[in-house]
Design a protein that fits this description.
The complex is a heterodimer of chains A (323) and B (273).
Chain A: H1 2-17, H2 21-56, H3 73-79, H4 82-114, H5 121-129, H6 136-146, H7 154-157, E1 172-178, E2 181-186, H8 187-213, H9 217-225, H10 230-241, H11 243-258, H12 262-267, H13 279-289, H14 293-322
Antiparallel strand pairs in A: 1-2
Chain B: H1 2-33, H2 55-95, H3 101-113, H4 117-129, H5 136-159, H6 164-172, H7 177-188, H8 190-206, H9 209-214, H10 222-231, H11 237-268
Helix pairs in contact in B: 1-11, 2-5, 2-8, 2-10, 2-11, 3-5, 5-8, 8-11, 10-11
Chain lengths: 323, 273
Amino acid sequence: MEPGKSLNIGNKTRVEVKKRRKITKDQWMAILFLSPSIIILTIFVYGFIGWTGYVSLSNWNTIIPDFTFAGLKNYLFLFSDFRFQADLRNTIAFTVLFIGLVIILGLGLGILLDQKMVRGESIFRNIFFFPMALSFVVTGVVWQWLLNPSTGINLFLKKFGVEPKWYTDTTILAGFQWGKIEFGLPVAILAVVIAAVWQMTGFSLAMYLAGLRGIPDEIREAAKMDGCNEFQLYWKVIIPLLKPITMSVVIMMAHISLKIFDLVYAMTGPGANFVTDVPGVYMFETTFRGNYYANGAAIAIIMLLSVAIFIVPYLWSNRRGNS
Amino acid sequence: MEIRKLQKPLVYLILMLLSIFFLIPVYVMVITSIKPLDEVSLTEMWSLPSTIDLSSYSEAFGKLAPNFMNSIYLVVPATLFSALLGAMNGYVLSKWKFKGSEFLFTFILFGMFIPYQSILIPLIQFLREIGLYNSIAGLIFVHVVYGLPITTLMFRNFYANIPDEMIESAKIDGANFLGIFRHIILPLSISGFVVVGIWQFTNIWNEFLFAVTITQSDKQPIMVALQNLSGSQIVQWNVQMAGALMAAMPTLFVYILLGKYFVRGLLAGSVKG
């Protein structure tokens, strides 16, 4: 399908040859410039996804490749697997909490820092931005130590009589039986959410700050003339104006959260009863530690589909917006 | 006006509290890393060290230095190549649009969002096939390929700000596709290369999934070595914290020096604002 597409472009340019000779040569150069990347990505993104899809339908669950057709066996196995069901629960809980908190904190801090009365705005900004420059591995190592139940933050909390078990807690809040697992909010995932929010809030803050600065003062003044108070100004005027930014933040955070691997792997691992496990960790362990390639490929395809649900409509609408 | 005056202390209070939350990990990392071994205990985590002991750094350095160098050998060429290819693509996709070029842009962009798990199994088979498995060269190749979507996006957004009239008048003066790229676009691209370079440097330095699956032991970049260090029970916390700081240093340093460009990259890389 894709080579056909680029052929199409070739034909189009050839039509132009008859009209304007000089431009056409440059047009060919432009296509030539672009073609290495197109060819590479056709193979390494689309081709390899296809190959992974093929592996996910095979019997390759040993160290020796076995491409005999297995149908949906691996997918059926996963959806009836305790660990994968737990992963789905954890991913949903993690994604919702992570995106929600990153948006609330980013927007809230953005509004506070955008007030002209705040001095030292750039110091605060840098304090909230710098974790983005770090690796999820570094974040994981540090927060594992901070949220260790017998040390870290708990040394303070103990004075107030609370000692959360953080990522070692196996409680599922609001749980009900669902398939083989208890569905609900795994308390342990909160520890991972805290670390991820610590790292990524700067991202949404940067986006919202840029958005807030793009809103002309006239709009604020006009709203005030119409009798809006400060709260109404933000709730009824500014936040709706920031909707495209919120969309972008949701998309960027959703794809990070649905494919998260390194933070969990470095910080907690799968956890007892898989309370902090995610598909990324399961895929890595089952494929590269357990040699269940077909199962690993099936997990990867499910991860891809979950990301695509968010990304494809977004890219599609952006594309239409451009042209 | 009076309401705003009342709000002011509250605003500062919120900002201060959140700043503490953001800085706690740094405090713990730094003080733990300079503690002598006998003060690194579960109960004394928050207290300042009685003396400054840098032995954890020398131990972390001894363990991580080869991997640190691996990361340097990986990051420099991978950043350069992916930025250059991104500039070429961005130039075409912003200044030489043709029928279907918007589709091709979306086609390229999709690669930015995929979970890399979904290409990992064939990728490793492929790298084994061509003999680049477990090599820095293999990792460079991987990062150039999968860095293409983001660098293309950034350069396309960057070049969109260069007025089309400049290109048009150069065409009238007889400049061709390559001439315009070399003499007009590239000289204007310096800040674009800085932004993309910082972005790629940070991402590749911090990347973990490719690093841990494509390389082993002595070929591993720093993040994998750090993860191994923290995974082993024998290594003390002060050494782990010193290692974490060491691993974080290059990207933090770049951020401190060129943070403005880092944020610009972030905005340029988030599709459309």
